[in-house]
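User: Could you write out the 3D structure of this protein bound to PRP? I've included everything you need below.
Assistant: Certainly. Input first, then the structure.
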Amino acid sequence: MLTIALPKGRIAKDTLEIFEKIFQKSFVFDDRKLILHVGDFRFLLVRNQDVPAYVLHQSADVGVVGLDVLEEQESNLTRLLDLGVGKCRVCIGVPKIRKLDFSLPEIKIATKMENITRKYFSSRAIPVNIIKLYGSIELAPLVGLADAIVDLVETGSTMEQNGLEIAETIFCSSAHLVCNKNSFISKKEEILALYTHIKNYILTK
Ligand code: PRP
């Protein structure tokens, strides 16, 4: 039995579709249930940012999680495979009418991703004051809370509709299959079998 932590929303849906295609069975959570058993798999439905904790503490053997979350949390997990779903970019967004001046003594950045932001700006020796927010990040520069944002961009609509534009792309993200080191040893055959199934499916898609 393999336990797999999935992040609620689009990535869980896309991942379960991959399982349906590979195993030719239905993989659907009942209404509000957070656990799904199908054959030798048990799926857990958790918050995106919580996937690494479930896998790291071995409540799940493997997980599916965005590269953005892995980079932000710097979790000690084994990255097995890029699933090619949940594609987005981590970008710096700035107001169109007020381009960012990177030579300011300090730039105020609003973001959910403090570590990614700190690392990126420190690698460029640009001093930043990070304002940690939990959502609606695009609002911050519009009301003077920050000069710019670091946020996820998928379609670009949220930035566009709020008068922001991408100043720089920090990196591209997508959902990755990860596992903890203990499960990778104790359930190596099962994990590698799943890895091979998914990899072959992605290659033939
Ligand atoms: C994410 C992200 C952007 C938006 C980008 O927010 O933080 O705000 O999606 O998507 P787009 O490029 O397709 O417009 P989310 O919807 O998760 O809500 P949040 O603001 O509450 O984090």
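The pocket of PRP is lined by residues 135-138, 151-158 (CB under 6 Å).
User: Perfect, thank you.
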